[in-house]
Amino acid sequence: MSEEKKIILVTGGSGLVGSAIKEVVEKDKNSQEEWHFISSKDGDLSVKADTIRIFENYKPTHVIHLAAMVGGLFHNMAHNLDFFRTNFLINDNVLHTAFETGVEKVISCLSTCIFPDKTKYPIDETMIHNGPPHDTNFGYSYAKRMIDIINRGYYEQYGKKYTAVIPCNVFGPHDNFHLQNSHVIPGFIHKFYNAKMSGSNEITILGTGKPLRQFIYSFDLAKLIIWVLRNYNDVEPIILSVDEKDEVSISRVATLVAQAMEFHGSIKFDIKAADGQLKKTATNRKLRSLMKEKFEFTPLPVAIKETVTWFNNNYQKIRK
Ligand code: NDP
Predict the structure, then answer these.
(1) Least C-beta-crowded within 10 Å: which of 29, 85, 281, 292?
(2) pLDDT in tens, 117-146
(3) Residue owning the nearest CA to atom 36 of ligand 1
């Protein structure tokens, strides 16, 4: 007997993660899946009426919910209230409209940066609510944590299996390369590009360069989210991260971006600027134990090089 066809709605489908999922499913077509990728042009998901209209239009059976107000450390620090309110409204509208329209499965997106500031390492899926998040991004963090509360509620009251994935830092083509409001890798790529173009032989990075982070290439994350859609049926969230041994310092990332951009000047660190959390090491043990095949992550230098090539080839039309 053939399975029912899945109609999959991807919110935030024009962003970094959404575009990567789109590229992966276009290469790996499945006749039992019909995919729709939407952006803010289809409607504002922080507005309930727009959300209802979108769900009535696509009639999804499954939702991958990526849409969010997203930004780097300095953007978060200056706009914690906006990050909380906008993301909370988007998440409640999407999850409740999914529930009201009978959507079978919703996969929302948390982040390893929403975990408690003071915690044991490595971080795992059970620790989300074990203490306050770092002060720098409390708005974004609490809005994301509420997704887990809402998912638990829909399961306990209505038996709905809505879940969430927890990626580490993501980067790749279609990222936001804005110099102030971006995450660390796209921000560095743009900064090093400007330095190279202006013929500068010195660049200054904010912070000490010492914090450690795990970075996942958007195409690797896309493949793992598709695996979750097809194979993971729990309500508890699942961490989608590179291995613990692949954690790198910000200064190493700066060196890799400089090499990929062929910037040969010196890199200085402004140690008076904020560093954010010193590390957020997460374990992908649960993912590794559930996936039958051994997933190979793209090596960081390769993924950074590909992203820099994409940035150089698309400079005129990228988000910056
Ligand atoms: P992007 O900023 O690249 O994309 C955001 C997407 O959300 C865009 O498609 C945007 O549409 C859409 N969007 C934003 N606001 C609204 C709104 N009010 N109504 C409708 N659509 C909206 O995000 P990413 O791809 O980086 O992130 C995807 C998910 O992954 C997010 O939930 C994020 O929190 C999470 N995440 C991201 C990480 C990262 O390092 N980037 C790390 C861990 C988790 P438009 O293009 O039209 O503006």
Answers:
(1) 292
(2) 899 999 999 999 999 999 888 999 999 999
(3) 111
